[in-house]
Amino acid sequence: MSNPKSTLIQPTRREVLRTLAVGAGAASLPLWARYAGAQSADPIRIGFQMHATGIGAAYGRWYDRTSQAAVKAINDGGGINGRMVELVTEDDATDPARGAEVVEKFATQSNCDVAFGTLFSHVVIGSAPRAGELKLPYFVVSEGHHVASGMLNRYTLQPGITDVKSQVQAMAPFVAANLGKKVTMIFPDFAFGHDHRDYFSAAMAAQGGEIKAMIPIPPTETSFTKYFPQIPQDTEVLYHVMVGPAVLTFVKELGEFFGPSRPEIFGFIDSLEAVDIASPGLEFLEGTYFWEGNPRYAQADQTEFDKAFRAAVGVDANGASVTDAADVSTYAHMFGCWETLHVIKAGMEACAYTGPMDRAKLIEAVEAMTDMPASAAHPQGAKRFNGKTHQVFGHQYISKVTAGKLLLALPSSLGDTLLQAEVAYTTQAL
Fold it and tell me: 40-163+334-394+423-427 belongs to which CATH class?
């Protein structure tokens, strides 16, 4: 379509001089100040660090779908301080070095206000130092204990999903009381798996439990049968948490190894995220238990907030895409993207955010948050944020495989997940 015809209006000499004077004064201002007025109508740009490729790709795809839905909901509601939100997406390849490069690109090339995303702990650990150096707020949707432990920096926050140490603290009493106290652990051999190794073993010890064996699995492994003979015969509970494209193979081979006789099995749903529980070869999982960050299957007491969240993201009552029943979501984790983006919105509105010069104010505004009631912004449930540790705590769920579905067996209380502070990021300079 051609542009409509316009009329050229010649300015007067006085108007030209006035414009030149204003321009000369503006030239002496910092870059952000020169453009602050113009930016006020521009979109809020959020750099989305996405696991588009690599071992986190299944998560990345659903993190993207959830984030796009959250941005639409925010924009449909008027945006942030009247400004629309725009996602700037970059693939980190689920790689720490690439993750740091992506964060730098957001800050120095893409004119992003904040950075957001990423699940895998080793990528967060590789990316966060660069975010801190660049003073770019970095909101991560990861389960690792790296933020709450004090490993990172004041510019890194985890306000949308509970960390591993909190999760296993809430799970261990159930495992010890109902399944057994002699536990063998199988976990991926990188930061996320090491968190499970360290914190679940400590949580079980506090319950009088004993870890019989710890079996780390390389993240690139595609077959697992050679590891299963390492499981001691007196194991009462097999605890597994696996990630990556080979998770279905892992669970199928586990069933083939044990046959009709198996110990009690408690898994983190990471081992079956994006996998249909009713897949052929998974029949042996009947009666076993899983941790879920958010129940995949809509439960009998489903909240209106969960209904609305599923509808917005396009997920059915079985946790699959409404357009493809075989496309199973990463429902136990992806809510963290929706909730984190709403935390960013709330923080920006609380500090009257206008641009990058307000990044420190945004950090302080989020640090001031505490209780987050269940709502459209927090469909997973009520949460409590610790501004000193930059970590959120929320309800956790234990589900039992029943007739090929996951039925809720036990929701933890919020108090079950709370940890004593190990750091006070608020003492660090901004």
Answer: alpha beta
pTM of the model: 0.89
SS3 166: helix
Instruction: Write out the chain's pLDDT in tens, 430 residues.
Output: 333 333 333 334 444 334 333 343 444 444 444 444 445 689 999 999 999 999 999 999 999 999 999 999 999 999 999 999 999 999 999 999 999 999 999 999 999 999 999 999 999 999 999 999 999 999 999 999 999 999 999 999 999 999 999 999 999 999 999 999 999 999 999 888 999 999 999 999 999 999 999 999 998 899 999 999 999 999 999 999 998 888 999 999 999 999 888 999 999 999 999 999 989 989 999 999 999 999 999 999 999 999 999 999 999 999 999 999 999 999 999 999 999 999 999 999 999 999 999 999 999 999 999 999 999 999 999 999 999 999 999 999 999 999 999 999 988 888 999 999 999 999 999 9
Q: Which two tokens stand for residue 44?
A: 């809020």
DSSP structure class, residue 362: H
Residues 128, 424: Cα–Cα separation, whole Å: 17
Give the residue from 135, 191, 137 showing the smallest Cα distance to 165: 191
DSSP bridge partners of 49? 90, 117
- Amino acid at site 287: G
Find how far residue 374's CA is from the centre of its chain: 18
Topology adopted by domain 165-300+398-411: Rossmann fold (3.40.50)
- Cα–Cα distance, 399 to 385 (Å, whole number): 25
Give the rounded distance of the alpha carbon of 10 from its chain centre.
Answer: 55
How far, rounded to the nearest angstrom, does the alpha carbon of residue 269 sit from its chain's CA centroid? 14
Instruction: Please give the structure tokens belonging to residue 322.
Output: 């409404």
Separation CA 349–CA 367 (nearest Å): 14
Q: Does the CA dihedral 182-411-197-422 come out positive or negative?
A: negative
> Residue 47 in contact with residue 88, Cβ under 8 Å?
yes
> Residues spanned by CATH 3.40.50.2300 within the chain?
40-163+334-394+423-427, 165-300+398-411
- How far is the C-alpha of 359 from the C-alpha of 348, rounded, in Å? 9
| Residue in 219, 226, 285, 229 with CA at minimum distance from that of residue 252 | 285
CA angle 381, 386, 389 (to 5 degrees): 130
State the Cα torsion 272-276-277-280 to the nearest 10°: -110
Residue type, position 34, single letter: R
* Phi, psi dihedral angles at 237 (to 5 degrees): -135, 130
Are 189 and 230 in contact by the 8 Å Cβ rule? The answer is no
